[in-house]
Here is the input.
Amino acid sequence: MARILLIAGDFVEDYEIMVPFQALQAMSHRVDAVCPEKREGDSIRTAIHDFEGDQTYSEKPGHHFTLNATFGETDPADYDALVVPGGRAPEYLRLNERVLELVRHFMEADKPVASICHGVQILAAAVSLEGRKVSAYPACAPEVRLAGGNFADIAVDQAVTCGKLVTAPAWPAHPEWLRQFNELLS
Here is the structure.
């Protein structure tokens, strides 16, 4: 059983927090979901992104997700792995220096990290992706490349593992990225 930190914020993609949070627990892992400036028991609002034939995803109000740990008390040394979901939250979470420090800890310690969709915005702000094959929502490809990564343009239901980093374009890839991530946790 691994102890996993999940960093999220308001308007995180609904499926990208709800599904991994529950699925990883069902696999017997402990998952602590945190958000800057919030405590255990506080909630964050989610957004539902869907693919309905438009040029990009649509966005609808999601649910209230209750956090089960306190961001200010988070010590990355207590965790075996990190999950960074997407949605709109990463665009502002990447401005928080403590979030970037947490991500750096996991990347520099070579612990398993999973990033879905726009979560790569946080990774690209925190560390160099030099020499890594990285997937994300296609609109994030420039950020992957600017951070030195090799953007993996894969199907929306696929994922790629490069070392201990598992990345995927969006929530339709949950079965694949969760499988690959769980292999790293074993």
